[in-house]
Amino acid sequence: MSANDRSRDIGAFSAAPDDDMIVCRCEEVTKGEIRRAIYDGMFNVREVRRFLRCGMGLCQGQTCAKLVKAIIARELGISQGELEDAAGRAPARPIEMRIFASERGRDE
Amino acid sequence: MSNVSDVIIIGAGIIGNATAYFLTKKGLKVTVLEKSEYIGNGGSSRNGGGVRQSGRHPAELPLVMYGVKNYWPTLSEELGTDIEYYQEGNLRLGKTPEHIKTLEGLTNSAVSGGLDVRMIDYSEAKEICPYLSEEVIGASWCPTDGHANPLLATLAYYRAARRNGARFISGAEVTEIRKIAGRARRVITTEDSFEADTIILTAGIESNRILETVGLHVPMNPALLECLVTEDSPPLFYQMLGTAMADFYGHQSKHGSFVFGGTTGFEPYTSLGKSPPATSSSAPGTCRGIMKYFPVLKDLKIVRSWAGWMDDCMDHIPVIDAPEEVPGLVIGCGFSGHGFGISPTAAAILSQLAVGENTVLDISKFKYDRFKVRT
């Protein structure tokens, strides 16, 4: 872990021709929204997904996680290896509340 | 870039970020140091988003009432980010005469604090929220309560403060506050050192590690809080929900998903590691609680669960103070799991303490030196 100065100059946001492309299909987040969030100071996958909800939908980022990471790395001029993956959380796939609730082996 | 500023804030959670926002609005040069690689990675991203006045500790009630009047309704506009604030009331539900007794106690306490909250029966509750279980026999109802998205609010304050010129450094672990000529002035991190006229400590449960370097200590313990979120659903109801027994609390978000938290009884029995240990039993337990009050939600899919630490103070209310013992230091910690709703007001007060202004509300109940030994 090293210090990451959020005031360092990453240049100004400029629109790109493919900004309308949807990157997160579950939550319909576009590349342009992700790029804008980076210029608003969201310098890693975790902050971008908390800010925009990309990767937080039904598939939990299984489709878009790599794309989001690549976009952030490119805008910040760093390698993807410097960015940690977003944390995966339980449950491993979406599960109905009534089933999730019966973890004790009883159908309540 | 110079490491000297007017104010250093340690901890970029919602309290620290909002304080940075208020101070930059006053024209001050602010540096915010965050140990984690992520802004708002502690309790600020790990809570149910309640902006509640009802059910509050009496000491905190004026803070949250002030915030609901003066900050929350205009916060999205002010920060330029939709923080998804809904002011559609809070229903705290009961199913047994014991529950109703608990709710009446909370309600009476809040009414004597000047809050518009009252007990209602099942039929009135059902009119407010038609999806209630028929087992509910009554509720407390506070029409001016609400909820917001804590992830967005935390990052929105960060974004606005950063735009105003605050310098945020993540991955900057503070190891020590050092006094110069009797005044807190220098902040040492594992890699660097910083100086400011005033140092504000808003580091949640990690505050004590830093406070101890200037001989202070706040009596608080980590407590584990877990949350879950469902897939999105068509809009059903937007009240903030809770129960007398605190089996669960939560709300539907703007996105359509429901966000819920719950208590297990195991909250105080956690250990501080790198990240909070989500358990396999907490979220399912919360689901059982939810279904008893809202059977309509039983087929909604849970997509994610997560955990965080609360900085649970001995008397369950925060320390908001500029302690006499260490001139130049301002403390805002110990929010005990209900810091989100009072964060704008608490931050406004911290920013006033930092510049020596009179605070907008009386903070005598939040003094650092209020804790006394029993005998």
Structural account:
The complex is a heterodimer of chains A (about 110) and B (about 375). Chain A is elongated and about 55 Å long. Chain A has a domain of about 70 residues: BFD-like [2Fe-2S]-binding domain (Arc Repressor Mutant, subunit A, Orthogonal Bundle), CATH 1.10.10. In chain A, helix 1 packs across helix 3. Chain A has a two-stranded antiparallel ribbon. In chain A, strand 2 and strand 3 form a beta hairpin. Chain A is α+β, with helices and mostly antiparallel strands and about 110 residues long. Chain B has a domain of about 170 residues: FAD/NAD(P)-binding domain (3-Layer(bba) Sandwich), CATH 3.50.50. In chain B, helix 1 packs parallel to helix 6 and helix 1 crosses helix 9. In chain B, about 25% of the residues lie in helices and about 30% in strands. The longest helix of chain B is centred in the N-terminal third of the chain and has 16 residues. With about 375 residues, chain B is of the alpha/beta class. In chain B, strands 1, 2, 8, 9, 10, 11, 17 and 18 form an eight-stranded mixed β-sheet that branches. Chain B is globular, with a radius of gyration of 20 Å. At the A-B interface, strand 1, helix 2, strand 4 and helix 4 of A face helix 6, strand 8, strand 12, helix 8 and strand 16 of B.
